[in-house]
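TODO from last week: model Acetyl-coenzyme A carboxylase carboxyl transferase subunit alpha.
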Amino acid sequence: MVYLDFEKPLADIEGKAEELRAMARKGEGAVDVEKEAAALDRKSADLLRDLYKSLNPWRKTQVARHPDRPHCSDYIAALFTDYTPLAGDRAFGDDHAVMGGLARFNDAPCMVIGHEKGNDTKSRIHHNFGMARPEGYRKAIRLMDMAHRFGLPVITLVDTPGAYPGKGAEERGQSEAIARCTMKCLEIGVPLVSVIIGEGGSGGAVAFATANRIAMLEHSIYSVISPEGCASILWKDAEKMRDAAEALRLTAQDLKKLAVIDAIIPEPLGGAQRAPAEAISAVGLQIAAMLDELKGLKPAELVKDRRAKFLAMGSRGLAA
C-alpha cells in the first residue's frame, strides 16, 4: 500500500499492527500481541474515517492520482465481456494512452473507450502516463463513428492529467484532434455515458466526457487545468497548488452543485485504492443506471439531449 502525505500517521499505526502480527506468527507472545494488534486496527479504522470524512480539494487531488487506484484496463477486465481491442487512427499510428474496442456490458454490445495510465514504471512509460497524442483522439473518433454506424452505446472512462503537450503532438494537430473528438461526441446518435475514474484533466478529458450523462467517483477530480499548472500561471509559483485546487472547484461535490456532472459514485472508505473490486462494482452499477435513463431515445433525441445539456450547463449551475 502506497500512503499519501496526509496518511503518514495511518501508515505508522498500520505498520505497527503488522509488526505485531509478524511477531505473533513467530510465536512470540501470540495472545497479547494479537490483542494489541486488534486495538491498533480499531485505532487505524477511526483515523482513516476521520481523514476521509472531509478531504479538502488538494487532498482529493492526491487521492485521484493515487497509483493504486483501479485503471481503465481494470474496469474493462471486470465489467465487460468479449472485449476486442481496436488499434490505430488509420492515419499515423496507435496511441497506447487510449484503449478502446468492442465489448459487452451486462451482455449488451457496446463500445468502450478510455485513458490508460499504466500500473508500474514500464507500463506507465508505454501508456505515456495516460496523456494522449493526436492519434489517440483520432482513434477515439474512429471508434465513435463505428459505434454510431452500428447503433452501439459508447462508454468512456476518463483518467488523464491532460493531453500530451509535446512538440510532435502539436505538430500533428493536437488541438484540432481534441476539438474534433469533442465535436464527434456531440454528433453521434447513440447513448454516450462517461465516468471520471481518476483525473479529468483539461481538454484531454472533455474530448471523452462530452456525454449525455457524466458521473465522477467520489474522490476523482475534473478541471480545466491541473492545480500545479494553474498556480504557475496565476501566481508564478507551482507551490500554490493547494490554493489553486480550492479555486478550481475540481471536486465531484463542487461539480455536482454546478451541474457539470450528473452523479457522484461513492468510494470505499479510504478511496478506491483500498477496495478496488468494490469501487469497480459501484462504477458498473452507475453506468447501467445512466444507460437505462437513455434507453428508448431516438438518435436525434440523444443528440438534442447532449447539446442541450452543455448549452445549459452554466446557467443551470448558477441557478442552483
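Done. The CA atoms of residues 52 and 270 lie 6 Å apart.
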